[in-house]
Amino acid sequence: MTQAHQDPLGIGARRDRTVQEYQHDTYKLRGKLKEPTVCTECGTLFHKGRWTWAPKLAGAYEIICPACIRIRDKYPKGLLALKGSFRDEQKTQVMGVIHNTEAKEKSDHPLSRVMTIEEQHEGLVVTTTDTHCRVASVKRCTMLTTASSNSTMIGTRILFE
Predict the structure, then answer these.
(1) For the whole model, what pTM was predicted?
(2) How far apart are CA 136 and CA 151, in angstroms?
């Protein structure tokens, strides 16, 4: 009987896939929550394995959701910084895009919220509790600049966490 060829990396090791890096998030809840669970601060409901904006169910357990803890600790997960002439020329449109994006993301993902919108001398800084809201805002701001013929996003920096 012949011996099978032994690969030094292990039998059948695949070299064509990328390995996901571990992302440590201190605000991610450990373990599974008892159902139903409601947040005492914002009223979101954890039911059937996900957070929703459903009304509070009778006999629900009470905790503080990860988004409310992030807001209380002032520790954002996402950071969006808009700098340059684009922000000044289309301030109302940019603010509208940010607020509309938050409303859409918040309805689909209750833990994805805008924490603060600060206007600093170097630019507009938006902090979020999750990266979904930040990425969606960037996409919509980019669409806003391409739709406008008299303004470009050149000189505008978008910073990520």
Answers:
(1) 0.70
(2) 20
CA-wise closest residue to 54 among 70, 67, 35, 68? 35
Residue-level pLDDT at 155: 38
Chain centre to alpha carbon of residue 73: 17
DSSP β-bridge partners for residue 35: none
Q: Is the pLDDT of residue 74 over 50?
A: yes
Work out the number of other CB atoms within 10 angstroms of the CB of residue 124: 20
Distance, CA of 63 to CA of 34 (rounded, Å):
10
User: What DSSP element (H or E) covers 74?
Assistant: none
Rounded Cα distance between 149 and 146, Å, is: 7
Element (H, E) at 38: strand 37-39
Name the pairing type of β-strands 123-128 and 50-52: unpaired
Phi, psi of 11 (to 5 degrees): -70, 125
Do 111 and 51 contact (CB within 8 A), yes or no? yes
Listed in sequence order, the DSSP H helices in 74-117 are: 85-89, 91-108
Name the token pair of 128.
């979020």
Number of H helices, E strands in the chain: 4, 7
